[in-house]
User: What shape does this take?
Amino acid sequence: MFDMIVLLLECDKPWRNINWNQKSELKMHLEEFSPSNPDVKHIKILVAGPIGEGKSSFINSVNNVFQGRITCDAPVNSSSGHGRSFTTALKGYFISHGQIPLVFVDIMGLEPDTMAGSQPEDIIKAVYGHVKDGYKFDESKPLSPKDQHYTSDPSLSDQAFCLVYVIPANTVDMTDDKLIDKLKIIRHRISEKGIPQVIVMTKVDEACPLVNKDLRKIYYSKKIKQKMQICHDKLGVPMCNIFPVKNYCEEIDTDDDVDVLILKALDQIVQLADDRLFNSSDTL
Assistant: This one.
């Protein structure tokens, strides 16, 4: 019966092509990357999404690829999907101990309720570089220009040049409309300034038994394509900027197939961010 279900989920041919042998090439390309503006040493990437659904795990997973081992620089909430956000303060994480010129900025998780989780205004301010590292989020109100953690005149290095939404594939179709509304507010506001946006769709193995059985079937999966379409329909992010991945969660060793999916997503994120940096002036 299980095999029958798996067969029904599989397309005859992949709907997106991927070279599973490109890990070394992708890794080298990213390790040799340098920002297009010499005044910017590290490009900032802001990571946002629902609480407990893989933001910090994705940051750790990226670091795992380059370290070749399981790491846990960004603390992860073990009670995924329940309780409150484990991340309460804005914090930047350098990739591979700063050897790669990228900084992932982790932010408090979003929640459906108006007065819960990070506020859309704080995320927008963080993208534009107005929020200093270490700012502890206040769920009752967004950051004020009078606050000591507010930067009134951010430099290019303070600003983020891509916003990554981390959305779980296994529950995307059940995402609360109020949460989607928050994401839409953020998307609309930063789109006005040309900030590129990418969806990293996590938990693909939990969303599709075909992929759970064989990760290389990810682009044969009708279910994964359907979940990506839902992400596109809800948030408006182009399908070409939606990347299904599997985060490292229970593993004690890295895996080449997991790494390739993460590297492919990261490569696109870096290209989009650097394009935006290249086209930026001193202020956004």
Q: What stands out?
A: The chain has a mean pLDDT of 86. The chain has nine helices and six strands. The first strand starts at residue 43 and ends at 48.
